[in-house]
Here is the input.
Amino acid sequence: MKLVNGFSLIEYAMKKRNVLPAFNTTNLEMTIAIARGLDRANLPGYIQVSSSNLKLSGPEVMVKIAEFATKGVDVPIAMHLDHGKSFDDVKTCLDAGFTSIMIDASGLPFEENVREVKRVVEYCHFYDVPVEAEIGALRGKEDTIENIIDEKTDPNVVRDFAELTGCDLLAVSVGNVHGLCIQPEIDLKLLEKIHKLSPVPLVLHGGSGIPADVIWAAKSFGLLKINYGADIRKAFIEQFGKAYELDHNAHNVFSLSFKAVESVSAKVCELAQMINRCTAEEF
Here is the structure.
């Protein structure tokens, strides 16, 4: 199946009552593993790349890799820009063939966040591509960015933000964190308040480490998309780390890459099925 439009994926997930997992990739092997894992789970989701990771390859290369990885895959998968940091990031990725966009202007004051997101929404909607935005700040480390501030989303500004910007998905901060070094403490009561006021579905970044029962509860409070990066990166790196510990002269990248792909694919399948409380046969 070719990469699907983000609006189509959202519509499909809402019809099927799925929570969409979004998995961060960096290279060919990770991307293949994500596509295989979703296909194995028989569940839809996203392949996503953050702006910082695009420095390693580039939007056009990552789209080509994703197109290659999804050949023969039967579940809907969209290509998503994660934490787009500028309007230029967005334009470049859209031109390259990304089918879903996030613009992260959450570090700006409210009015500037609104202005930047609205600009991106108007551009992306012209090309029929949905936009995810963010209010609040997560603690933890993601790629090269480390944040020690935990700024939870203010439910009182959620409706105004969504209506002023026209965003299609809203990422929120409710005790979720980036990385594996800090334990997430999800405030479900806060998420419920946000859900009651939000006219759009909600997104949780930092899915790694959030217990299954918390995710299932969050689904009742508007959760449609949840991001995973650290869990699958760890599964990838472990294969190379184990080989090196056993033999400091280990150098067979080919065989280790195959093992890493299988490890990540299994983790993707496990997470996709876990958040949707199902097995592939039940889908």
